[in-house]
Amino acid sequence: MPEYTLALSPCPNDTYIFHALLHGLVPFDGTLTAHMADVEALNKAACLGKYAFSKISIGAYPACSQYYRFLSAGGALGYKCGPLVVGRKESARDGEIAIPGKMTSAAMLLDLCGLFPGKRREMRFSDIIPAVAQGRVDLGVIIHEGRFTYEEKGLSKVLDLGEWWEETYHVPVPLGAIVVRRDIPESVALAMERAIEASIAYAAKHPCAARTFIKDHAQELSDTVIDRHIATFVTAYSSDLKKDGQEAIVRMLSKRMADTGDVFVRPLWVAHKRVGHSYNLHNVAKKPGMAPELRFLRFCMGVVLGLFFVHSIPRKGDKA
Hints:
Elements: E1 3-8, H1 12-22, E2 31-36, H2 39-46, E3 53-57, H3 61-64, E4 68-70, E5 76-78, E6 84-87, E7 97-99, H4 105-113, E8 120-122, H5 125-133, E9 139-142, E10 156-160, H6 161-169, E11 173-181, H7 186-205, H8 211-217, H9 223-233, H10 236-239, H11 242-260, H12 292-312
Parallel strand pairs: 1-2, 1-3, 7-8, 7-9
Antiparallel strand pairs: 3-11, 4-11, 5-11, 6-9, 6-10
Helix pairs in contact: 1-7, 1-8, 4-6
């Protein structure tokens, strides 16, 4: 039986989603080994194409698209679930701000909103709230369980980056997704999608089955925090991105392309036809917003018409 590594974060939404799959409670034609790490560590590993299947931040995809495609199941995106910028009452908006990694979607959203010009300092996500509370940085972008505990540490919300995204672009906020390495056969990738969907369905039907597994890896052990975390980050898009989930991811990546000129390896998706759409990136970084193939065709047509016009002009000595 083939063996694959599935890299995921230890956060409750991931351990909830993958518990049944990793414990053999749903079918998958292969042996899975779990590797758990902080999301930014997973992002860096993805840049090397290290794991067959991996959770990554959407913000990391520009750096790893040559190795991976997106699966439609297992992701984290939705409404009212975005990262928060938090600070102390005296914190200045232009002060130093802690981020949970340069490649995280949180960092990308912070850059896209353009409201916080201060110096960025990278640190592990679980260290950000203490750093802000102790005055080591002015502000922090918090993700995961921190969304539910920052007020207990005396911090205040400065901006909800998810709400900013939703109000600006009118699509769900894309945070993370499961990707499959491009050398993995399509049949295996599709089998993994089905297995993830089945694992989520099992968790919904048996909500207590994964609790010990979740607590073994969670930062916060409060049942209330864990339940809120799962309810916030495991959404309908976790089972299937569907049209608007894919659109949200493409919108975020397109914004990054427009700002940086990044180029992505296509296709982005595994079996994208299953939702009836092919959401792929266009070269929106160049204006006007015309695909390169159309610009080349227009150029060729111009050349042909120009040559025809030149040869149609009567020359001296030509018979009338």
